[in-house]
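Dear support,

We are seeing what looks like truncated structure output for some complexes. This example has two components. We would appreciate it if you could run it in full and send us the complete token output so we can diff it against ours.
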Amino acid sequence: MKNNDIRKTLKQCKKAAENGYKLAKKQYKSLNETMDASSSKIEMTLAHINSSNCYVSEATDSLVEQLANTRELLGKISYSQNEDIVDLSEKLSTFSITLFGKTMAGKSTLMETLTNGDGASIGKGAQRTTRDIRTYTWNNLEITDVPGIGAFDGEEDEEIAFAAARKANLILFLITDDAPQAAEAECLGRVIELGKPVVCVLNVKSSIREGENSKITLRNIEKAFDDERLETLKNQFMAFASLGGEIWDDIPVISVHLKSAFLSLKTENKELSKILAEASRINQLKARIIEEVETHGKYYREKNFLDIVSISTLDIYEKLLYHANENRLLSEIIKDKKSQLDLWIKKYKRDSLNQVDSFITGIEAELKLELPAFVEQHYDDEDVAKAWNELIVQKQINERTKSLSDTFIEHADDRIKELARSIEKEIQYFSKIGIDGNVNIPKMHRIFDTKKAWDWGVLVAGGGGTLISGILFFLESPWAGPVGWVALGISVIGRFGSWIFESRGKKEERAKKKLEENLVKNIAEISEALRKQLKSVVEQVFKGQLDAQSKELKRIESLIIYLADTQRDLALGLQPNLLEQSKQVLEAALKLIFGGRWYTKRIERAARIPGKLLVAQFNENSSIPVKKRRSYGN
Amino acid sequence: MQEELVFINCTDDRKELLNELLASVIDNCVADEYTMRITLKNDSWDTISRIKILQQFTGNYIEGKKENTNA
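Here is the complete output from our reference environment:
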């Protein structure tokens, strides 16, 4: 293509860029209106979460953090979109091509070749040569050389390279004919995800010595261009795509010997220069670049502006839906665990009360078993009350009651801790199995910290301890509770009954019977007191702690659902923007394929995965212009 | 790089969209108001892309899992 032809194409490209700029500004404005509405929704949700009476602060903190991250992300997107649109708008006349590839792939050599440079920027050995962005002009096209990717400690370089790639209209991705590397393929994948059109340049490397016989040089270069070898290399590189489930067969690969292309410009030997240029196949590459600009340039330029807005909109849309789904799954886990807890609480209460009954029945039986011997020994004892109390102390009723209370408390505590662990385990499990491995989504924050969130056993033990103290006091002090009081009654009856009016034998029988009756009554009172105390412990554990935990789980579940709904609402708020953005890219593509605008009214909606797929949904009653699939781009 | 362009002709009903986009690879689909959980015959990039497209059209989160071939 002659220079005046490319100028004409570039003029048309400029018009397309102006249109793209206009559309991108409109989209940006519309998106910001949506984001403003989103901000209000986020603030409302934050207020709702903060005003909740959840006492597990880790749960609410985590939810607030998710929202704060979303708000920050929306802010960043808005800022960077604006910055990128402004940057691009300052270069409306410029068709930008970015050279991308690993360190020493030949980017600088290509640049020097295209611009007929002095070779100063070409690296030697394994050193990095391009740490900054450098821009040159070739054929009225702007060529940008960026830092190489895949270098050791080169994260910063990669960031610079990808930032430049985002603004490029076309990427020349350089690889070499030594072993293809997975890191290079990964970078190409990222470039494709930016929606960028790519021409792959396979830099064939074979050593050329200055002053070498031109025939030998030519033979060496031709040998390096062995079709079978290059095809194998190309296939090896493209095979990396299949690891990610992708197919890159449609990416054009142009093989070129860059070193000889550069040397052809430097040698004063005209014949050698011609041989080197021809052997290098540099002209095929140049022709491919020009062809790319001529055939697709207008589309690339318009799409470049639209992609600035649409790619980041799609990114946040997917993240919001993902988080909404993840939170909804989490809420289901918590709901399920709450149901399990509620069932367990019911069983716990029933079992505990049965245990209390068995325990008291056992105590009663033990004491009643002692009665005949005790009555025989103490029916005429003035210190009968003291002796009875001593017997009760010997039976360690207090210790055994405390031990049973502790069992209730520990059992409930263990159950809650087990529940917390199982919730946490499931949260970690489902966080790992997110299907959308292609989207970089932050890991789910931990909602529950078992130790902090569920460490209420201390409180229960404190409350239980107080109750046990009460039992202790009541059992140990002969005058303070029913045991002491009844024992006093026993003592008084022993001393002042109708003792003096009856025969000794009858009097003894009556005294024994009376004492036994009083002791049985006392055992019943002790049993009742113990029952009351133990039931109180069970109730304390049930109402104060287990039920409170169940209600807390319900509150957390509700908050998570609220957050999930907010995230989904935010995504749905972005959906019309996203579909409209895709529709505009589709219109640009259809202009390229069919020309004219006759199709616009027929398009109902469009959705797009940049660099991969664009789906046009036509009106129900419209006929599809082309039934078969069409590819576009290159 | 080429983006594949696909034309579909159907209403906005998600069942229709699902059939238009993924009929050939769906093994099973369970859906509620918020999500669609799809068991897939393959998880190629084309299928994953179509799932994401469906996600954009429907506003549902689409969870696609490849069917367990060992089962």
